[in-house]
């Protein structure tokens, strides 16, 4: 007995389960489990990364000025209201650390992203789960779950793992309705894939209580570099900036992200391909008796009759060398989340699921 104990809540954290990344004994495994860009990062980002190798002995920028300026230019945002983190996961962490502690509540939804709970518990706060309606965020249920103790309300829009999203009116109603003293966080990890959606930028621009989160891990194909950012009211960004480590982002990560966000031609190509193959995949699955909700992201949530069928299909796909994401941990045991790959990947997974369905009659 050492008498050494962690802070309350820490041992309630279940370790994050990431998408499986390999199948033993298979070199040709197709990974469709982590919503990665099938085209990888922009070649310009890779080139910037290569160049940054000459500066590895230098400490990186502490203010992320060049990256914030690039993001500001591309998105038409004020760079002084941007904070960059080691993935948007780190910004989620900063928000909880900065604004929620013992006795405070952090609200998110039934099928919400698991980092909200992890970061809330790490801060000593109490996670509160609001129900969804048919796998979509329900604004009324979210607002009903709020109390005077609510400090943060997290939703991803489009959401992961459902792929569904709520519209501008619903978002505004949510921002209007959260209690005084609470921050609404709009996690836009998949915002770019939703045609015409600004990720919540206008709301974050115009309100004192809204923060938008974005990432380089999905559309930009830089999950391995760990870069994300937040945009919000100056007062909140100031708090997050005080909390973050002065050198939280490495020089190579900053260089790669800046080049990536400036390469709009590459982005346009990736978005067009995603939209085309997302529609194709959803239709191909439906034709094989596997429905999904309309997805606004870079994955499709395939729905099966029950958890048993989803499990059997997952096993079948593994046999075929295809890795998808089981989402029982998100309260969706009868579903499999399938990242929209390139055309050959989509054809391969649709074909395998068709064979699975035929084999079961
Ligand atoms: C992937 C993802 C993130 C971002 O993760 P980082 O790699 O840490 O930027 C954030 N929110 C959701 C809902 C995600 O799916």
TrEMBL record:
What catalytic activity does the UniProt entry give for this protein? L-histidinol phosphate + 2-oxoglutarate = 3-(imidazol-4-yl)-2-oxopropyl phosphate + L-glutamate
Pathway terms, separated by semicolons = Amino-acid biosynthesis; L-histidine biosynthesis; L-histidine from 5-phospho-alpha-D-ribose 1-diphosphate: step 7/9
A Gene Ontology annotation in the biological process aspect, one of them, is: L-histidine biosynthetic process
Report the EC number(s), separated by commas if there are several.
2.6.1.9
Q: Which Gene Ontology terms cover its molecular function? A: histidinol-phosphate transaminase activity; pyridoxal phosphate binding
**Aminotransferase class I/classII large domain ranges (all copies):** 28-353
Residues with PTM N6-(pyridoxal phosphate)lysine: 218
The entry sums up its family as follows:
Belongs to the class-II pyridoxal-phosphate-dependent aminotransferase family. Histidinol-phosphate aminotransferase subfamily.
Subunit and partners: Homodimer.
Question: What's this protein's name?
Answer: Histidinol-phosphate aminotransferase
> What is the species listed in this Swiss-Prot or TrEMBL entry?
Psychromarinibacter sediminicola
Which gene holds the coding sequence for this protein?
Answer: hisC
């Amino acid at each position: 007995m050492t008498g050494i104990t962690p802070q309350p809540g820490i041992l309630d954290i279940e370790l994050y389960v990431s998408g499986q990344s390999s199948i033993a004994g298979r070199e040709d495994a197709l990974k469709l489990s982590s919503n990665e860009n099938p085209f990888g990062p922009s070649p310009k980002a890779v080139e910037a990364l290569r160049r940054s190798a000459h500066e590895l002995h230098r400490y990186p920028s502490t203010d992320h000025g060049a990256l914030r300026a690039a993001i500001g230019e591309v998105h038409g945002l004020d760079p002084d209201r941007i904070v960059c983190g080691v993935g948007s996961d780190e910004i989620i962490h900063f928000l909880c650390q900065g604004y929620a502690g013992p006795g405070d509540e952090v609200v998110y939804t039934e099928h919400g992203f698991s980092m909200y709970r992890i970061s809330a518990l790490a801060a000593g706060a109490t996670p509160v789960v609001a129900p969804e309606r048919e796998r979509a965020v329900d604004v009324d249920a979210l607002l009903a779950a709020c109390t005077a103790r609510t400090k943060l309300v997290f939703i991803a829009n489009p959401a992961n793992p459902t792929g569904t999203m709520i519209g501008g009116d619903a978002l505004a109603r949510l921002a209007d309705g959260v209690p005084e003293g609470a921050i609404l966080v709009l996690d836009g990890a998949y915002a770019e894939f939703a045609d015409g959606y600004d990720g919540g930028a206008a709301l974050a621009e115009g309100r004192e209580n809204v923060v938008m989160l974005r990432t380089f891990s999905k559309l930009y194909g830089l999950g391995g570099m760990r870069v994300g950012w937040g945009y919000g009211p100056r007062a909140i960004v100031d708090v997050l900036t005080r909390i973050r480590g002065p050198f939280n982002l490495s020089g190579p990560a900053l260089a790669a992200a800046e080049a990536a966000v400036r390469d709009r031609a590459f982005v346009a190509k990736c978005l067009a391909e995603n939209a085309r193959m997302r529609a194709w995949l959803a239709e191909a699955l439906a034709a094989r008796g596997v429905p999904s909700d309309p997805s606004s992201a870079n994955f499709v949530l395939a729905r099966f009759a029950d958890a048993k069928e989803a499990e059997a299909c997952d096993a079948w796909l593994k046999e075929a060398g295809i890795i998808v994401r089981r989402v029982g941990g998100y309260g969706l045991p009868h579903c499999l989340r399938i990242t929209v790959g390139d055309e050959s990947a989509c054809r391969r997974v649709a074909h395998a699921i068709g064979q699975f369905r035929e084999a079961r009659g």
